[in-house]
C-alpha cells in the first residue's frame, strides 16, 4: 500500500484535532474528486513500518482526538490488508481515540449485502473488511456526487454520503447514523 499524504493537526475530516492518512489508489475516479492525484495506486510513498510508527507517535498527544483515513480509496481490495493491520495497532495502543474512515463504497457494499456499482465488477469485501469495520467509530460512505454537492454539510461533500456510527450499526445489524455532539448542535441552532 502507498499513501499520498499525511496531515497532522487536521480539523476538516472528523471531530476535533486529528491525524489524517490519505492512502493511494482508487478505481472510481469521481468527477470533481478533491484528491485526484491519490487515485493512482503508485502515488506518494510506500506505507512502511516507519511511517506507521510516525502516525502512532502523532496520535500520542492529549490534544489529538483521533485518526481519519481517506484516499484514494482505503477500501480498495489492495489496501485493506495493510490498513487492517495498522488500524488494529491504533486501536490496541490508543483505545480512547476515535477512528474515522471515508469510502466511496456504501455500508451495504462493504457488508456484501448489495452488489457494487460501476466501475467495480467485484465486491470490495475481503477477509480484512470486517477487521477494518470493527476498528472504526465512524464510516463516511458513498461516492462524491457533484449534483448532490452541499458545502453546508459537516465532514462530507455531497448529500448522498452518510456518517455512520459503526459500533452501533454492527450491534443493530442495520445502519445507525452518527449523531453530532448535542452541545455543538445546541450552540449552532441559537
Question: Can you tag this structure with a few keywords?
Answer:
single chain; 190 residues; alpha/beta; seven-stranded mixed beta sheet; 6 helices; 7 strands; 28% helix; globular; disordered C terminus
What does this structure look like?
The chain has 190 residues and is an alpha/beta fold. The protein has one domain. The chain has six helices and seven strands. The chain has helices at residues 49-59, 77-93, 107-110, 129-135, 166-172, 182-189, and strands at 2-10, 18-23, 45-46, 66-70, 98-103, 138-141, 162-165. The protein has a seven-stranded mixed sheet. The longest helix is centred in the middle third of the chain and has 17 residues, at 77-93.
The number of strands is: 7
State Rg: 16 Å
SSE order: EEEHEHEHHEEHH
Order of strands across the biggest sheet?
3-1-2-4-5-6-7
**Approximately how much beta-strand content do the residues carry?**
15-25%
- Largest sheet data: 7 strands, mixed
Structural class category = alpha/beta
Distance between the termini: 46 Å
- Number of helices, counting only DSSP H or I runs of 4 residues or more: 6
Average pLDDT figure? 92
Question: What quaternary form is this?
Answer: single chain
Q: State the helical fraction.
A: 25-40%
Which consecutive residue ranges, at least 5 long each, have pLDDT under 50? 183-190
Count the domains: 1
Amino acid at each position: 500500500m502507498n499513501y499520498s499524504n499525511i496531515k497532522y493537526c487536521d480539523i476538516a475530516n472528523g471531530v476535533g484535532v486529528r491525524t489524517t492518512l490519505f492512502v493511494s489508489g482508487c478505481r472510481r475516479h469521481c468527477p470533481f474528486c478533491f484528491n485526484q492525484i491519490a487515485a493512482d495506486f503508485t502515488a506518494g510513498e510506500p506505507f512502511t513500518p516507519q511511517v506507521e510508527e510516525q502516525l502512532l507517535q502523532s496520535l500520542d498527544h492529549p490534544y489529538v482526538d483521533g485518526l481519519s483515513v481517506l484516499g484514494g480509496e482505503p477500501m480498495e481490495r489492495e489496501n485493506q490488508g495493510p490498513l487492517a493491520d495498522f488500524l488494529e495497532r491504533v486501536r490496541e495502543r490508543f483505545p480512547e481515540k476515535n477512528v474515522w474512515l471515508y469510502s466511496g463504497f456504501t455500508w451495504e457494499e462493504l457488508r456484501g449485502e448489495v452488489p457494487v456499482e460501476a466501475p467495480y465488477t467485484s465486491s470490495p469485501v475481503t477477509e480484512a473488511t470486517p477487521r477494518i469495520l470493527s476498528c472504526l467509530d465512524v464510516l463516511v460512505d458513498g461516492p462524491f456526487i457533484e449534483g448532490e454537492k452541499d458545502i453546508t454539510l459537516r465532514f462530507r461533500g455531497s448529500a448522498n454520503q452518510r456518517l455512520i456510527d459503526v459500533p452501533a450499526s454492527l450491534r443493530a445489524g442495520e445502519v445507525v447514523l452518527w449523531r453530532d455532539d448535542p452541545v455543538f448542535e445546541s450552540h449552532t441552532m441559537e
